[in-house]
Amino acid sequence: MTTDSTKPAPGVLPPPRWAVRAAHVVAWSTVPSGVWRIALVLGVPVGVMEREEFLAGLPGHSPLVAMAYVLLIGAVAETASYVALGLVRPWGDVVPRWIPLLGGRPVDHRFAVLAASLGALAVTVLWWVPFFGGLLTAPSPDPGISAGEVFFVASYAPLLLWGPLLAAVTWSYHRRHRLRDRVRRAVARTAVRSTGTSGRQG
I need a surface site. Which of 24, 61, 82, 95 has the fewest CB within 10 A? Predict the structure, then answer.
């Protein structure tokens, strides 16, 4: 028997299309900067830093250490951004069964909303402050812009979408679960009233 991986948990409305698309943008937003870092280690001209300059800050100036370092950073960033998909997928409602001890248990959506909200705030500050702060404090730009500089900006600019889009998807997730809880409370109140009425009639 198979299950629909896109079907929400019972009682939860499906996510709106815009939220699904936004979550996918978040999940992919970290990929271009990861490619940029790999290109830097491989010696591709990236405009704002030379390979030797980057290697000088690592133990032994080793390209292997550098590659391991950038792959680790990329894996952490992409894993963190991928979690946004949980806000529009069933595994954001019920823990997948293959996870030991927790598999099959419902996700506490209040904890998920809190964690995602803090994450959205953190990545917004992490990327927006250096990006726009750097623009405000940077000296007047040269009239010419190299292809490497364009590559750098194009690679890191998607990270500016991470925080705001994650916040929007989190709001959608919270709204869907809040509506489910309201329906459940209304059904429970109706059941209690029906039981009381039946008891008086008996």
Answer: 61
**DSSP-assigned letters across all residues of 27-38:** HHTTHHHHHHHH
Higher pLDDT, 192 or 35: 35
CB contact set of 15 (below 8 Å; sequence gap of 6+): 8, 23, 87, 88, 172, 173, 176
Q: pLDDT tier at 138 (50, 70, 90 boundaries)?
A: low
What whole-number distance in Å separates Cα of residue 67 and Cα of residue 79? 18
Quick: pLDDT tens for 53-103. Answer: 878 877 777 888 888 888 999 999 999 999 899 999 988 888 888 888 888
pLDDT averaged over the chain?
A: 81
Q: How many other β-carbons are positioned within 10 Å of the β-carbon of residue 99? A: 11
Of residues 17, 31, 119, the one with CA closest to residue 6: 17
List C-alpha distances in Å: 77 to 26, 27, 128.
11, 9, 16
> pTM for this structure?
0.78
Residues paired with residue 94 on neighbouring β-strands, in sequence order? 106
Cα separation, 55 vs 43, whole angstroms: 11
Pick from 49, 38, 47, 45: which is nearest to 72 by CA? 38
- Rounded CA Rg of the chain: 24
